[in-house]
Amino acid sequence: MPVISTPSPDLSSILADWYHSEARDLPWRRKAFHARFGAWGTLVSEFMLQQTPVTRVIPRLEAWLERWPTPTAMSSATPAEVVQQWANLGYPRRALWLHRAAIEITARHGGDVPRNVEALLALSGIGDYTARAVAAFAFGDRHPVVDTNTRRVMARALEGRSQPGPASRRDLVTMKALLPDADDESAVFNAAMMELGATVCTSRAPKCERCPIAAQCAWLSSGRPDTGDDRRKQARYEGSDRQARGAVLKALRESDAGAVPLDAVIHDWTDLAQRDRAIDSLIADGLAEASEQMLRLPR
DNA sequence: AATGCGTGGCG
DNA sequence: TCGCCAAGCAT
Predict the structure, then answer these.
(1) Secretion signal: which residues (predicted)?
(2) CATH match for A241-296 among 1.10.10, 3.40.1360, 3.30.70, 2.60.40
(3) Cα A201 to Cα A177, A191, A254, distances in angstroms
(4) Which nucleotides of C are covered by protein (CB under 7 A)?
(5) CB of A214 under 7 A from strand C?
(6) Taking a C-beta distance cutoff of 8 angstroms, is the pair A211, A45 a contact?
(7) Cys-Cys link to A102, which of A51, A74, A81, A227 (CB 3.0-4.6 A)?
(8) What is the pLDDT of residues A21-77, one digit of tens each?
(9) Is A81 an active-site residue?
(10) What mean pLDDT comes out for the span A175-198?
């Protein structure tokens, strides 16, 4: 009988095999995409993917990059143009932050997206996730990339919980300990953990029968217990201030004249105090400006 | 550290 | 129908 036992493959090689055969063919994973747009392409895709689903980002990304193929190109745009191009991707402050980041990259880094995580973190709109995603996926460096997907996979596979707890910087430490030693393998590991969480180890109705690491999952082996969910619930959108802001901004984006009379902005809105609140807060956020009783996108 | 911030698809 | 959820960030 066999004297030589086959070593059981480690987590990272199982995930790498699975990733290479099962991962979705997304634009930002193509070699041609990196050849055309470099790290800027990765950075823009990551901004758009902050809380906006992949399927909604895909049709908007290429148009953005064709209009502004480099940080320097985008740095000379106006906020109004950027917010307009962002359209209905949601959370329009991200468009302003991306614009500021482009200006900062042009000023501080000669127009080249920095590779260093500290430098990336110093840019507007870039936090722990985006900084390391750019460093790992655009530059191939070894950093723990922690997002909602990897946190859920770690919570289930490692802790046996049905949902992760609130996001914590400790997650970075946990993820880093799982990374393979080699830079390139570590980038694949990050991508594979995210892909697994996005397509198999989903928040609701996870497809454990299709999971490549089912055999080593603490949650599955203990019978998928409901361990509770201490994540904060999302506030209701219907009737919210956010909905009012969204309606005002939509009106500004769609205004042919580029400006709307203040008293005509979402004129059919029933809660007038809420409408005024929305306008004031958009101005405070730099997403709108008022002059001569007109409201417009910021110039 | 808890909150506020868009929008739309899906079960 | 309607609540859940989505590659987070700044304050």
Answers:
(1) none
(2) 1.10.10
(3) 21, 14, 39
(4) 3-10
(5) no
(6) no
(7) A74
(8) 999 999 999 999 999 999 999 999 999 999 999 999 999 999 999 999 999 999 999
(9) no
(10) 98
